[in-house]
Design the sequence.
């Protein structure tokens, strides 16, 4: 009986993590490999969605943002380089409303951005996806 209770606890813990992760929406990880600090960094749901701000991101650091798209849209990364130039780059070309998944974005020197452009639509890692 004790083994059954332990098993049920593990299964319920896992599925509660999956449900919580689904509720968080899209996970965007931004890695700064540009060689300079990025200012006024944000992830924006276009065209009329919210902008999720990230504090200044020092070089060789990463930041994570969770966002929810309420309708089909695309998602942009916005930032200013050390010279103050405003840069906007698309990172997800299509995100459906209420979608859950993750994408990793790397900012390169000169304002270049490496991204797959599509969402990895999997949230089955549950609690393990919050690192």
Sequence:
């Amino acid at each position: 009986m004790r083994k059954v209770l332990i098993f049920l606890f593990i299964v319920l813990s896992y599925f509660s993590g999956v449900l919580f992760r689904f509720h968080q929406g899209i996970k965007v990880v931004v890695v700064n490999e540009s060689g300079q600090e990025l200012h006024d960094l944000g992830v924006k749901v276009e065209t009329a969605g919210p902008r999720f701000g990230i504090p200044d991101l020092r070089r060789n650091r990463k930041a994570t943002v969770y966002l929810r798209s309420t309708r089909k849209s695309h998602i942009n990364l916005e930032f200013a380089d050390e010279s103050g130039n405003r840069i906007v780059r698309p990172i997800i070309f299509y995100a459906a409303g209420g979608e859950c998944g993750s994408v990793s974005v790397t900012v390169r020197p000169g304002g270049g951005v490496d991204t797959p452009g599509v969402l990895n639509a999997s949230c089955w890692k549950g609690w393990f996806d919050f690192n």
In short: The chain has one domain: 25-118. Helices lie at 2-24.
